[in-house]
Predict the 3D structure of the following.
Amino acid sequence: MNKTTHFDDAVNLIKRAKHMVAFTGAGISVESGIPPFRGRGGLWNSYDPALLELDEFKNKPKDSWKLLKKLFYTHFGTAKPNGAHYALADLEENGFVKAVITQNIDNLHQLAGSKNVIDFHGNISRMVCLACKHFFARSDYSLNDLPLKCKECGGLIKPDVTFFGEAVPEPANTLANRQAEMSDVFLIIGSTGEVYPAALLPETAKETGAKIIEVNTSETQFTNKITDIFLKGKATEIMGELVSSLLAGSKNWERYFLR
């Protein structure tokens, strides 16, 4: 299939897919009020990303935790899933989506009801001790006394998200690559292809035979390189239209446009 903007081609491709995998980036959560980290309006235009380097976090944990609290828990913590998140959850429930690989750490796919979610960069709903490696729920700790110390060993606690200088965690890395290799349709939503190694996953899918459908508001690093079908628009609008076509007659289809 040559690159096209034909919506019906995307619908037909999804209907024929045996193993479709969704791959999401910051663009899917923008409509939930979460700004991207990079580009116009990106968080790193206003805050110093060095505080989220692993070594800097260890050296200046209180300063880093103040930024983490502001960005991830005060700002992100009020966000709710939007129509695109709900659309993916319903596509999974109806057998169209086999897995969601997300670069996002906001937990919105899980809140929307997606079950098979691979958090490629971690998830702010979990925390981990750097010393004893125990994992904790975010709700286990108050953010009033920073930096956080482990209840088990007294070690430094960090959010279970990938900081600069850290490798992508296992088993997320292996599971994501396996899903990319298994896919026959790979649906990119809101990812620009600028963050590595996450940006290699669509390329892996393409190399192993998958057709690439891309949903984005503008062209990206993927569009002219690996994308087969480019659907230009907001994630909520495009995903809402896809779901209403794929799940014709569904009593829930209106909610993708209303949220």
The chain has a mean pLDDT of 89. The longest strand covers residues 122-129.
